[in-house]
Amino acid sequence: MQSTQKPNRKRCVRAATVLTLTGAAIVSSSFTTVAGSPFPLACASSDLRAWVRIERHGETGDVEPAAVGEGLLRLLEARHICGQQRISAALTLYESILPDPIAAQFAK
Asked: Whose CA is closest to 83, among 26, 23, 31, 22?
């Protein structure tokens, strides 16, 4: 038997927003890699941790979609700064991107 329940509009809008911003992030990051010098290992590690934090917030829905979008924009900015070999500034920016919701639960 097929469910007649309509999908939650707010959840659909959130998913569409995250997918759109993710696509933009992928396209933008590929330009940085092609145009710049090799991506530093420290930046790659911080980039991955920040990306996971953004994904977790998207999955848990504990922040507004706009905050997730802002996190993605800050991630792109940090990638750009790393591409300019300004590692210290980029690492600081990476760490400021959305706190980890899982770690925050254990800190309470």
From this structure: 31
Are 53 and 97 a contacting pair, CB within 8 Å?
Answer: yes
Whole-angstrom CA distances from 108 to 3, 93, 101 are 39, 24, 11
**All residues at 6 or more sequence positions from 11 whose CB lies less than 8 Å from its CB, including other chains:** 61
Could you tell me which of 52, 21, 42 has the C-alpha nearest to residue 89?
42
Q: What is the pLDDT of residues 18-69, one digit of tens each?
A: 666 666 666 555 444 545 567 889 999 999 999 999 998 888 888 899 999 9
- Cβ–Cβ under 8 Å, residues 94 and 43: yes
DSSP 36: S
Query: What's the full length of the chain, in residues?
Result: 108
Interior angle at CA 21, CA 9 and CA 7, nearest 5 = 15
- What is the tens place of the pLDDT at every residue in 84-104? 999 999 999 999 999 776 666
Model confidence, pTM = 0.62
